[in-house]
Amino acid sequence: MASSITGPTTATVHLVRHGEVHNPEKVLYGRLPGYGLSELGHRMAAGIAEHFAARSDAGQPVHLLAASPLQRAQETVAPLAERLSLPVITEERVLEAENSFEGLSRVKQQLRNPRWWPLLVNPFRPSWGEPYTQQASRMLAAAKDLSGQAVAEHGDGAEVVVVSHQLPIWVTRLWAENRPLWHDPRRRECSLTSITSLHIGPRGVESVSYAEPNHELLKDATALPGA
Known about the structure:
GO terms for molecular function: phosphatase activity. The protein has helices at residues 39-57, 71-84, 107-110, 132-154, 166-176, 215-218; strands spanning 11-17, 64-67, 88-90, 158-164, 195-201, 204-211.
């Protein structure tokens, strides 16, 4: 892979998936504009703000905030930015993955149509969208730059929060854990407003941890495509 994270210092980059989206038509919205958080999604965003504020009060402050430019990511980071009085860097490299099925509703039913079958020939790349390697590469490049900036401004052990999207976060974790990037989407461990933390040291990403601060809210969430 072209991008990796190396350096003599340590930092942590917390990759946060956005909250639940208002999507009653169950559209695979991908990068489409106009998809903001549901009422539950806003509660999740508030919960993430409380989580990191509590860590800050305990001596583990966040030094830098960044988010995908998509509405759902910006709305998720907003309460945290307000709570910590930090500006938000809009980071294009942590955008949702490109997907040829973007805009379709009830995708599983749509895939019965032979017109879509040529896009399914290579699930390992995948053939219907942005290559997994490309997603991980851009995510890692963003993490490297943001962590480097945080360390330069705040010293060793700096922490960064980046609000992004399920698939790019998941393939970045797979890369960091030296696992194949192709996978069964049903087995992703990356719930709404979960935190996938990249712990960076002299050798690059040295470990990954995972947390679900809003675990109690997940039971009320609707499984939606395009998240």
